[in-house]
Amino acid sequence: MAGERLRLGVNIDHVATVRNARGSAWPDPLRAALLAEAAGADGITAHLREDRRHIRDSDMDALMAGIGIPLNFECAATDEMKAIILRLKPHAVCLVPERREERTTEGGLDVAGDEARLRDYITPLREAGCRVSMFIGHAPRQIEASARIGAAVVELHTGHYSDLHAEGRLAEADAELAALREGARLAASLGLEVHAGHGLTYDNVAPVAAIPEVRELNIGHFLIGEAIYLGLGPAIEEMRRRMDEARG
Ligand code: PXP
């Protein structure tokens, strides 16, 4: 496992945020996804939120039809989303908690507290061939519950680590990293594939990329912002370079 090439999933939600700010047709998330693919992204992630604040249903249709790399369909575990997933059958589904008033996905999913419902929820998705991922914190009980319900993947929430790093609280960021490392080890020992993401940037990605059990990072907001300066392809290539360097 160690040394295996770490995959990069590029989240293109905020291309849609910019588009929707003017109610126009551009910038087009599909075009961004195709540029990401050409720049070496291993997958595309898009979050269809209940309020459709960025990605819309038509974007998901266009991504499914247009990209040549796997689509990771991020959503809340609602009946509405289940119906869309079963129609589209994306490669992967990442279940996240969602609150209307939040600016972004602020915490992890409470799998342990909602185990029976989530087990039932993911069964048809698994049967449809989707790799189901739970976006969770590093608490062992959430990881263990994800394994029990039959998820293939856990994505560990790196948002708290990223915030601590950005605030210069480096000792606390290190402690959070240690907990993420422990979580990744536990998850892999239970047979779960481990992903990580949220708030990752050029400056904070290396220690997360270096966790040997982590197989994929999902990165969005920073890359779309950086694309303003560098262009999307070069912004992704630089992230790729830093990930590979950290991986050794
Ligand atoms: N992974 C998940 C599950 C997310 O919800 C998000 C944000 O949509 C990301 C990764 C990417 O986070 P960011 O946009 O901060 O890079």
Summarize the structure in words.
By secondary structure, the protein is α/β, with parallel strands linked by helices. It has one domain (7-247): TIM Barrel (Alpha-Beta Barrel). Helices cover 49% and strands 17% of the residues. The protein has 11 helices and 8 strands. The chain has helices spanning 13-22, 29-38, 57-66, 79-88, 115-127, 140-149, 159-166, 170-189, 205-209, 221-230, 232-247; strands at 7-11, 43-47, 71-75, 92-95, 131-136, 153-157, 193-197, 214-219. Strands 1-2-3-4-5-6-7-8 form an 8-stranded parallel beta barrel, surrounded by 6 helices. Helix 2 (29-38) runs parallel beside helix 3, helix 7 (159-166) packs antiparallel against helix 8 (170-189) and helix 10 (221-230) crosses helix 11 (232-247). The protein is globular and about 45 Å long. The mean pLDDT is 96. Bound molecules: pyridoxine-5'-phosphate. The site of pyridoxine-5'-phosphate has 19 residues, from strand 8 and helix 10.
Profile the largest sheet. Answer: 8 strands, parallel, barrel
Task: Say which CATH homologous superfamily is assigned.
Answer: Aldolase class I
Structural class: alpha/beta
- How many structural domains in the coordinates? 1
**Shape designation:** globular
The Rg value, from CA coordinates, equals 17 Å
What proportion of the residues is helical, as a percent range? 40-55%
How confident overall, as mean pLDDT?
A: 96
Number of strands: 8
**Total helical elements:** 11
Note poorly predicted spans. none
Q: Provide the list of bound ligands, each named once.
A: pyridoxine-5'-phosphate
CATH topology call: TIM Barrel
How much strand content do the residues show?
15-25%
Q: Please give the CATH class.
A: Alpha Beta
